[in-house]
């Protein structure tokens, strides 16, 4: 006979703790002894309808004698034990908060849409300077959901040393892939060559920024585990107090960014423009500054720090500010330079630079707060109350800062108002997904986002970074421009709709996003995932 005992204090027989590795209780009774081992909870968190889920246990049945005298087989006992454990695991998997995967998948989808469709519809591409477009949500959404995931991932690693080792290894992996994909080595998908001149390598990028934020936020989470309470009180600020060290880390990052941005002196600087075939190729330009606290394109502290730390030849050479009104009459679209365009229009600028990445730590800090809420509050009402209140509060603060011109929304500078605005939107979007998917059970319409979110790294590398498209383009007929991808774009989408812009957008939606949704779904059914 097998019993599942959920509350030891209500069990009628004396129980005692045994073992140092597992939380193992042996309960003596007239019947055979039952040993219960506390099972490590997976990263999924139960989405209860209104009451706290009791702690689940796996049951290991150990008779004082190997058989009960009636010919019971040890092998059958082992199968029974495995079946019980699998049943418990299946119950836990069914309670996975699917909204987190859907949010991660949405972020990847947005990235593909704005990267490959932004050339045709530049209004969804990054804002030339101040403001916020659809593309400007991608990076902070990544950092937000990374923060949420940290709260779960480190909860499963009990020892600080093991946590630090995991954090360091994962950070190094992200740095490696970031340099490989965005440092200039890969020219995918259109250019079939590869390799980078180390004098011009780009040190910063999307994965590099994620690596920095993950490293800082995760280390704080790991080292403060023993100094925070295991339970959170019912007060409105109790959870902030319980995780005050995380907020202190975010506040330090905020102070470093604000003090540097508004107090650092930015002198005049010069650069040499490199663009084969351009009339300005090889020319040297000088930008006059000599100011402090400037938030414009030419003389901000964010760009100055990157020029000093990385060197001007290692920065991004195609900044979006070339689409600003100061540079072209076609703004916000790309167009010919104005005759009187300032010199900085052709200058390099790093949108994922060092100082702006320090500010982005706040996005990860806010994300991990949402993860803590999900862990400690077990009812839908409590979770949504905390999430939505914080989300709308951040939105109001960001709107006030932007429209009073105190601190404009700016993705390139990763301004404080931009942090608040994008984190607020992320919180509201996550809450909406949580209501639709986990509360109301409308999971089917969002399954493709869940699948992509479960295999986010694979879709990011092969899809968003164009590695699979580059592989297909490598098999061309007569000319590198005559490939299967180019044929599909031209004959299936552009020629059918008689529009280059609309055809490109439809290809991105159906040829890329839908394709990767189906591919990720197949991989999910096969149990194949790529995780760092």
Task: Note the topology.
Elements: E1 15-18, E2 24-27, E3 34-38, E4 57-61, H1 74-94, H2 98-117, H3 138-153, H4 160-182, H5 206-223, H6 238-242, H7 244-263, E5 265-266, E6 269-272, E7 284-287, E8 291-292, H8 301-309, H9 354-376, H10 380-403, H11 416-439, H12 447-454, H13 456-464, H14 467-473, H15 484-497, H16 500-526
Helix pairs in contact: 2-3, 2-11, 2-12, 2-13, 2-16, 3-5, 3-9, 4-5, 5-7, 5-9, 7-9, 9-11, 10-11, 12-16, 15-16
Task: Considering the chains and any ligands shown, give keywords for the structure.
single chain, 532 residues, mainly alpha, 4-stranded antiparallel beta sheet, two-stranded antiparallel sheet, 16 helices, 8 strands, disordered N terminus
Walk me through this protein's architecture:
- The protein has a domain at 98-232 and 360-524.
- It is mainly alpha-helical and 532 residues long.
- Helices cover 50% and strands 6% of the residues.
- The protein has helices at 74-94, 98-117, 138-153, 160-182, 206-223, 238-242, 244-263, 301-309, 354-376, 380-403, 416-439, 447-454, 456-464, 467-473, 484-497, 500-526, and strands at residues 15-18, 24-27, 34-38, 57-61, 265-266, 269-272, 284-287, 291-292.
- Strand 1 and strand 2 (24-27) form a beta hairpin.
- Mean pLDDT is 83; it is low at 1-79 and 82-94.
- The chain contains 16 helices and eight strands.
- The longest helix is centred in the last third of the chain and has 27 residues, at 500-526.
- The radius of gyration is 27 Å and the shape is globular.
- Helix 2 (98-117) runs antiparallel to helix 3, helix 5 (206-223) crosses helix 9 (354-376) and helix 15 crosses helix 16.
- The strands form three sheets. Strands 1-2-3-4 form a four-stranded antiparallel sheet.
């Amino acid at each position: 006979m097998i019993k599942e005992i959920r509350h030891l204090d209500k069990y009628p027989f004396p129980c005692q703790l045994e073992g140092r590795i597992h939380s193992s209780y042996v309960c003596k009774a007239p019947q055979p002894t039952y040993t219960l081992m506390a099972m490590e909870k997976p990263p999924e968190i139960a989405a209860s309808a209104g009451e706290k889920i009791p702690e689940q246990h796996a049951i290991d049945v150990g008779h004082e004698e190997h058989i009960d005298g009636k010919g019971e087989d040890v092998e059958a006992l082992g199968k029974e034990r495995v079946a019980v454990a699998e049943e418990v695991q299946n119950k836990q998997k069914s309670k996975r908060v699917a909204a987190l995967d859907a949010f991660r998948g949405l972020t990847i989808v947005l990235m593909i849409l704005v990267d490959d469709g932004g050339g045709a519809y530049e209004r969804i591409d990054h804002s030339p300077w101040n403001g916020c477009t659809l593309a400007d949500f991608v990076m902070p959404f990544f950092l937000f959901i990374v923060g949420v995931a940290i709260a779960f991932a480190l909860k499963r690693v009990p020892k600080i040393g093991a946590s630090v080792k995991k954090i360091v290894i994962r950070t190094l992996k992200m740095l490696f892939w970031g340099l490989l994909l965005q440092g200039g080595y890969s020219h995918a998908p259109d250019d079939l060559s590869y390799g980078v001149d180390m004098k011009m390598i780009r040190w910063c990028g999307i994965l590099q920024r994620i690596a920095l934020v993950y490293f800082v936020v995760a280390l704080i989470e790991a080292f403060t585990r023993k100094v925070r309470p295991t339970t959170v009180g019912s007060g409105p600020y109790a959870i902030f107090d319980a995780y005050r060290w995380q907020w202190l880390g975010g506040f330090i990052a905020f102070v470093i960014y604000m003090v540097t941005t508004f107090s650092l002196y930015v002198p005049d600087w010069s650069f040499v423009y490199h663009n084969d075939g351009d009339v300005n190729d090889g020319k040297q330009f000088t930008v006059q500054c000599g100011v402090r606290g400037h938030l414009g394109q030419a003389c901000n502290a964010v760009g100055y720090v990157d020029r000093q730390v990385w060197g001007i030849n290692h920065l991004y050479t195609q900044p979006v500010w070339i689409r600003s009104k100061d540079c072209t009459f076609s703004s916000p679209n790309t167009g010919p330079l104005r005759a009187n365009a300032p010199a900085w229009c052709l200058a390099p600028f790093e949108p994922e630079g060092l100082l702006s990445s320090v500010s982005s730590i706040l996005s990860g800090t806010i994300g991990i707060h949402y993860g803590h809420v999900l862990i400690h509050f077990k009812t839908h009402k409590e979770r949504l109350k905390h999430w939505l209140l914080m989300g709308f509060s951040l939105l109001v603060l960001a709107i006030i800062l932007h429209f009073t011109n105190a601190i404009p929304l700016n993705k390139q500078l990763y301004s404080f108002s931009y942090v608040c605005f994008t984190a607020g939107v992320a919180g509201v979007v996550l809450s909406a997904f949580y209501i639709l998917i986990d509360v109301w059970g409308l999971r089917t319409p969002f399954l493709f986002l869940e699948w992509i979110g479960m295999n986010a790294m694979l879709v990011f590398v092969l899809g968003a970074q164009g590695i699979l498209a580059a592989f297909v383009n490598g098999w061309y007929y007569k000319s590198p421009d005559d490939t299967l991808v180019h044929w599909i774009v031209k004959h299936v989408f552009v020629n059918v709709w008689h529009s280059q812009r609309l055809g490109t957008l439809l290809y991105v939606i159906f040829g890329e996003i839908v394709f990767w949704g189906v591919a990720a779904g197949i991989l999910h059914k096969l149990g194949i995932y790529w995780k760092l």
